[in-house]
Specification:
Strand content: 25-35%
Structural class: alpha+beta
Number of strands: 11
Strand order of the largest sheet: 4-5-3-8
Number of helices: 2
Order of helices and strands: EEEHEEHEEEEEE
Radius of gyration: 23 Å
Low-confidence stretches: 14-25
Shape: extended
Distance between the termini: 68 Å
């Protein structure tokens, strides 16, 4: 983490003969089909089902073979000091992150099978009948504008100061 410059992935050329895809041609998909996105600093993968006694060296050994690790974050339980069961690994390039997911997903680490996938994904587009393009809202919105709801009166509102 000595360098503060951000590495830029080279553009992925689209083949003219490839069939059209529902999303952009350079989209990377997770195992569930969601579109993976880059964090501010790099490509972060989430490793789950990590053994509680796994060390940073164990993880560096497994994931270091897929590319240079920019950052490795292990959340530890405050009481026991053991790993909570997941780890975040950051790579500077998409190809390293994809290689780590393909190479380490479903492998054993300290007698536990780990699952590896991208940590950040783009939310699916909202398909609303009113044509609004998603965004913030909630149960009290109509067409992207906030509608007021009637407030019930509290028992104290009925009493007047005398």
């Amino acid at each position: 983490m000595a360098s503060t410059e951000m590495d830029i992935d080279p553009p992925v050329p689209e083949s003219i003969s490839s069939p059209p895809k529902p999303h952009a041609g350079s989209d990377v998909r997770t195992s569930t089909g969601a579109v993976a996105v880059r964090s501010i600093e790099g490509w972060i993968i989430l490793v789950t089902n990590v053994h509680e006694e796994a060390s940073e060296e164990d993880l560096q050994e497994v994931f270091g073979e897929f590319g240079e690790i920019k950052n490795l974050h292990m959340n530890l339980d405050r009481r026991t000091g053991y790993v909570k069961g997941y780890v975040l690994v950051e790579y500077s390039t998409q190809s390293s992150a994809r290689a780590a997911i393909a190479g380490a997903n479903g492998t054993k680490l300290l007698d536990q099978t780990i699952a590896v996938d991208f940590a950040f994904v783009r939310p699916p587009p909202n398909k609303k009948e009113n044509g609004s393009a998603g965004g913030r809202g909630g149960r009290n919105t109509v067409g992207g504008t906030r509608k007021e709801r009637e407030r019930s009166k509290s028992p104290a509102d009925g009493l007047k100061d005398e």
